[in-house]
Every structure is written in C-alpha cells, then in structure tokens.
Q: What sequence folds into this?
C-alpha cells in the first residue's frame, strides 16, 4: 500500500500498487510524484520505485503552467465563488426582511395602498416563515459551494447549483439564476466530475 501526494498538493491513499500503476498509465502520476510506501517514513519520487513504473511508461514531468490546461479546481473556483456570493447576498436580504417583519413594518405601512392584500401576504407570520426558510436554503447553497470549491462532494455541488437557480427557492434569484446555470455547465464536464472525491 502506498500514499501519494497529488498535483493538487493533497495526500491520497493508502492505495494498492495496481492503482498507482493505473494512475501512471493515465498520466495522473509521473516520475516526480511523491510516494510513501506503507511502513516508511520518507517520501520518495515515484521513479525510485521500479515495481510501480515497470508496467507503464512514466510521463515526463509537466511544467508548472501550461497555456490552455485548466485544472478542475480552477474550473469550479469561479462558479463556487459565485454561489457563495449568491448565498451571502440572499441571506442578508432575507435577514433584513425577517427583521422588518418581526418589527411589524410592512410595505403597506410605508404608504403603499395599491395591492395591500398582496403585500400583507408577505408580512407577518408568512413573511417570517418565508424568510427563515430562504435563509436555510442560503445556508445549504453556501455549504454546497464550499464543498464544490474543495472538490469534495459532487452531490452537494449539484444541489447548491440547482437551489441557486430555482426562481421561487433561490435566496437571491436574479444573481442565482445565471450563476446556478454556470455552475451546472461546469459540473457537467466529465473531467470536473471525475475530480470530485
């Protein structure tokens, strides 16, 4: 069994030798990849383990930056930050609405007489309940966005994206709609989906 430090700087494993050889064959590991065999205390380069590289050729080390090559972390970063902003904005707007409803100030009390029935529906206990539910949804979007940014949970990333774009559910639908669509498009790419763990 072996542990490996990936290109993203994270530690993976323990994994069997077959898995290491498969990663080498797929180009996910190269001669410079750091490996720690079970029971050892010192990390060594993959090239130092002939039993791991004998079955497949080792890809040459990649330069630190390649134009046109974008990692999955870079791809999800923008939509994840957008979802975080959507969640925070939505939470703050709903917090303000909650405070207004708790204090008993409604749009009707501010001088608007047209559509009083409609405005009263969103004040009082219905308005308070609506604000609390929407704040909870903002929390779920924030949680999913943070998981997405770390490539930790594909399911939560998809859930956050759908919640952000849903018009009657999203805490900040004008911002959430385009960001939710953007996030779903990025998450649907096979190279991004396969990077989640």
A:
């Amino acid at each position: 069994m072996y542990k490996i430090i990936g290109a993203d700087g994270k530690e993976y494993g323990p994994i069997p030798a077959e898995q290491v050889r498969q990663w080498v064959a797929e180009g996910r590991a190269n001669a410079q990849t750091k490996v720690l065999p079970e029971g050892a205390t010192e990390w060594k380069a993959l090239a130092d383990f002939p039993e791991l590289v004998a079955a497949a050729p080792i890809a040459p080390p990649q330069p630190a930056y390649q134009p046109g090559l974008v990692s999955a972390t870079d791809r999800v970063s923008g939509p994840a930050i957008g979802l975080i902003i959507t969640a925070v904005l939505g939470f703050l707007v709903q917090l303000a609405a909650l405070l207004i409803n708790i204090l008993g100030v409604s749009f009707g009390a501010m001088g608007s007489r047209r559509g009083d029935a409609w405005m009263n529906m969103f004040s009082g206990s219905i308005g308070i309940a609506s604000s609390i539910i929407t704040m909870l949804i903002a929390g779920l979007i924030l949680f999913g966005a943070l998981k997405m940014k770390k490539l930790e949970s594909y399911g939560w990333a998809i859930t956050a994206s759908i919640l952000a774009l849903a018009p009657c559910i999203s805490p900040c639908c004008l911002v959430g709609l385009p960001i939710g669509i953007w996030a779903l498009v990025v998450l649907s790419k096979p190279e991004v989906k396969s990077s989640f763990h």
